[in-house]
Amino acid sequence: MTGTDETRAxxxxxxxxxxxxxxxxxxxxxxxxxxxxxxxxxxxxxxFLDALRKRYHDARHVCSAFVIGADRDIQRSSDDGxxxxxxxxxxxxxxxxxxxxxxxxxxxxxxxxxxxRYFGGIKLGAGGxxxxxxxxxxxxxDAARLTTRERLRLGxxxxxxxxxxxxxxxxxASDVAVLGTDYGSASASLNIAVTDSEEAREGAxxxxxxxxxxxxxxxxxxxxxxxx
Length: 228
Description:
Helix content is 30%, strand content 36%. The chain has five helices and eleven strands; from the N terminus they run ββββαββαβαβαββαβ.
C-alpha cells in the first residue's frame, strides 16, 4: 500500500502469512472452531466470513470480529444468533487486547476472526460462552505467525556512477534501506527508505552529507507500508 495519506501509527502488528490459521476447542461437547486471517478491507473480511459460512453451512453460529487499519479505526463484530454480548464483543476485545511477544504492544490489526460453533447439547450460560469465544479467538491468533508492518518514507539520491557502490554500502551500514539503484547515462539514482519520522530522515540526511562532503541531497517522496 502506497500513498501520501498519513496515519497516527507508524507501525503495527499483522499476520505474516495470507493463509488462515485454524484451531479446534471442545467445551462440554460443543465445538468451537476458530479461524483467523489477514485482511486489508471490510470487503475482504466479509468475503472471508462468507466463505466460512459456506464451508460450515450446517453450523448453528459463525460469530466474528475484525479490526482494520493502522489506527484500528474499523472495528466490527457479530454474535450471529448467540445471546447478545456473549460472542462478537468478547472476540473483538480479545483482538484489541492481543499483545505482541516482542514489545508487549496492543497493536494487532488487519485481522479477521471467525469462530464456528457446533452445539453439543449442553448449555454453557452467558459466562461460559464469553470464555469460550474469547479462548477460541486467542488460540486462533496464537496459532498464526505475526510480523510488523511499518510505514517507510521513500527517498531518491542522484549520485555519480563511480560513487554509487560505495554509497550503497555506507547507507546500509547506517540502517538506511537501499531498495535498488537505477543507472542512467549521466548518473545513478539510489532508491532508499527510512522509518517515517523526522528523526530518521534527518539521520539519513546527516549521514549522506558526511559521506559526500555535502555534495549530495535526498529528494523525499511518498510513504509505503511494508512488512519488516
